[in-house]
Amino acid sequence: MSTRRSFLAGSAGLLGAAALGGAAFLRPAPALGDAVRPAAPLSRNVHAFYYSWYANPQVTGEWLHWQQGGFTPPADIGSDFYPVLGAYDSGDFAGAVARHMAWLSQAGIGVICYSWWGRGDHTDRVAPGVLDAAQAHGIQVNWHLEPHAGRTSARAVIEDIAYIEETYGSHPAFYRAADLGNRGAYYVFQSLFIADWSPIAALRDEVIIMSQTTDVSRSQDFGGMYTYDAIAAAAGNPEWEGAGEWCAANGRVWAPSVGPGYIDDRAVPGNTTPTVDRENGAVYDRCWEYALREDMGGPPTWVSVTSFNEWHEGSQLEPATASPPGSAPYLDYEGAYGRTGTGAETAYLDRTAYWVERYEAVRAARR
Fold first, then answer.
1. What superfamily does domain 25-365 belong to in CATH?
2. What is the mean pLDDT of the chain?
3. CB of 215 closer than 8 Å to CB of 209
4. Alpha-carbon span 15 to 276, nearest angstrom
5. Rounded to two decimals, what is the model's pTM?
6. Mind giving me the DSSP string for 33-50?
């Protein structure tokens, strides 16, 4: 199942000239010591999808993405939740981005899968600062190759990988799988949109390129598989069995995606993607349980988490405020894992730390 992110990316430029007022609701990142629990042991096998497409006038000079759906940030944004950090800028490396890395550490997530929209895009321009912030917290970065306008063939993807390797490959935070030949990892979102992937087969000894599907017939040339969407798993029908078994039997990486829920009502008016209620954390737990089950191909090589901060789709682990600005009917994490008020804001980070520890224990016992 594809998501709405291609629509979101395409609309962002059209909405880039949205109103710049209301800066009073732009919240400075709290000091890193505030409400951040000690970092959990970091797992290099848990990869969280991370989005650096956000911008505000104070840092970048314009709004990017927060206005999605026709809203006027900072109080009114294209998300059904509102961040604790407000309508932040992904280029605020010492503030919002540093806080993100502290939160990821709290969750035990040792790798972010960085959403990259092509050379020269905002996500490309801020990547060096994100890599630096990740390094400061012991976190590594691999890459989520998005369907930008120039990504029309497998050859174009190979060129993108060559650019990323040349531009960022020497950075200390650049992820390479130490137990899999020290190869970099590249998740390809909407891989099914390209029919012929045969050119990448020759690269399997150099990099791990992941297809977004559970269809093994469409993954023969890839180094692994992931799902991104957690909607099917949340509904109790992930259909992961064959994919995990095939990856194990054929020397491929299996990285099923787990997530806490899904809602894009504000960001994508008239959407048809089903909303997945978080059920106070039960959905997230269910996804993790599926990922670890042997009859679902578990424990997998990696677990991918959808997402750390995809606010448009309401799949984020990043803390959402219990006291949003304005009068918009924002959701929050009230009741998640029995927590209330501001204590609920970090509920999904702490639950992730629990699952990361459990996953690593199961993974170690079965290998």
1. Glycosidases (3.20.20.80)
2. 91
3. no
4. 27
5. 0.91
6. TTT-PPPPPPEEEEEEEE
